[in-house]
Amino acid sequence: MSVFEYSRWDGQEFRPQSADEVFEKLSEYILQHGDDVLRQLDDVDEDELPELIQLIEKEGLIERDEEGKYRVSPKGIRRIQDRALTDLFQTFRRDALGRHDSQQKGEGTVRLEDTRPYVYGDSLANLNMHETLKNAYVRQGGGVPIRLRHEDYVVHETEFQSRCATVVLIDMSGSMGRYGKYHTTKKVAIALQAMVRAQYPQDSIEMIGFYSFASPMTERQLLNSAPKPVSLWDSRVHLRYDLDNLPGRVPQHFTNIHAGLRLARSRLMRHAAGNKQIIVITDGEPTAHLEGREVVLIYPPAEKTAAHTLNEARHCANAGIRISSFALIEDYFYLGLVNFVQEMARVTGGVAAYSSTEDLGQFVFESFIGGRHTRRSSR
Q: In the chain, pLDDT over 90 holds for what percent of residues?
């Protein structure tokens, strides 16, 4: 028998994976496939549970809920958000992002190079000590000690940082499962949550998923989410469902931007923030809309659905809400979707762009920051 020597590995010490490394891989699977990954852990007997899973549970990154099922803990969610933000920052210039604030001057946390004389009520935290001492020194003709007077004080100008309320509308229709579109969209949204928490704690940000209907998502629900599976393969569809008396099975995989915009406007109107914005991420034209207390599913996309959606977009704009729409184009050039998002930008005075998954992060982040300092008055 031949004797094989693995000299390449001789003398190298085996290093087991850390809890952080295991959790990083687990979280990436969750980002791609939703909470089905955790459900597989629930099916494993306690005695057969891998030691590494027990380790990350001990680290407090995953936990069991009231029913004994595994879920990502709040600590784990923060870890995933921060990691998503770090990953995105590595894909585009760091100096492209930052605290972009309004043009209005006032009390704030961003100090400018410009200075002005001190006015009663100004914060001394913004005192320009060098200019203040120089004024006193010149006034008294030199010498020490330097004695300060009220007229000597100089403070830095600051930029007023307005609060912003943001709703991100995430397409959960069946087609979002292709080409990694939903995985990328979810990662961008999770990273946005991390940036708001770290840099704009005075802001609010909410996530709403839209499919045949629309519903808000908590941080955990967003992490665990996945596109709705396609359940209807007819080449032409025209269905109506009573929202007050829904049957047991309703196709979920349609694209109801109309319902998403309406829900987003309703939630934003409760906020007192100076700036309000909606960011829409979609890969298809709307194929569902609301008529009174009915949801209407139409495929191929119909002008009636587009009209209802654009009308709701106008209501948002009239309420002073900025809308940015991003069309994910990964198939062959999809003229209908591009035309729709451009039309939505036209009727609202907002932003429209189409991009690949690679560019989505930079587009969304730049739009978010731009929307923070764009004050809009109701029409």
A: 54
Asked whether 202 and 161 are in contact (CB, 8 A), the reply is yes
Strand pairing report for 154-159 and 105-117: antiparallel
Rounded CA-CA distance 31/48 in Å is 25
The model carries a pTM of: 0.78
Nearest C-alpha neighbor of 326 from the set 294, 352, 292, 303: 352
Residue 205 sits at φ, ψ, to 5 deg, of -140, 130
Q: What are phi and psi of 82, to 5 degrees?
A: -65, -40
32, pLDDT greater than 50: yes
Q: How far apart are CA 228 and CA 200, in angstroms?
A: 32
Pairing state between β 164-171 and 204-210: parallel
The torsion angle over the Cα atoms of residues 352, 357, 363 and 364, rounded to 10 degrees, is 90
For residue 245, count other CB atoms closer than 10 A to its CB. Answer: 7
pLDDT of residue 44: 76
Name beta bridge partners: 206: 167
What is the distance between the alpha carbons of residues 267 and 274, in angstroms, rounded to a whole number?
Answer: 15
Partners of 204 in beta bridges: 165
* Tens-digit pLDDT profile for residues 342-373: 999 999 999 999 888 888 998 999 889 888 76
Please, are residues 355 and 367 in contact by the beta-carbon 8 Å criterion? Answer: no
Q: Residue 312 corresponds to which tokens in the numbers above?
A: 């709701």
**In which element (H, E) is residue 109 found?**
strand 105-117
Tell me the pLDDT tens digit for each residue of 50-93. Answer: 787 888 999 999 999 999 899 999 999 999 999 999 888 776 54
Q: In angstroms, how far is CA 336 from the centroid of its own chain? A: 25
Cis omega (within 30 of 0) for bond into 229: no
Helical pair 257-268 and 303-318, crossing angle rounded to 10 deg: 10
Residue with tokens 């809400």: 321
Which one-letter amino acid corresponds to residue 263?
L
Per the CB < 8 A criterion, the answer to whether 256 and 213 are in contact is: yes
Q: Bigger pLDDT: 3 or 62? A: 62
Annotate 276-291 with DSSP letters as a single string.
Answer: EEEEEEESS---EEEE
CA distances to 127, 134, 364 from 131, in Å? 9, 5, 41
Rounded to a whole number of angstroms, the distance between the first and last alpha carbons of the chain is 87
User: Is a pLDDT exceeding 50 seen at residue 45?
Assistant: yes
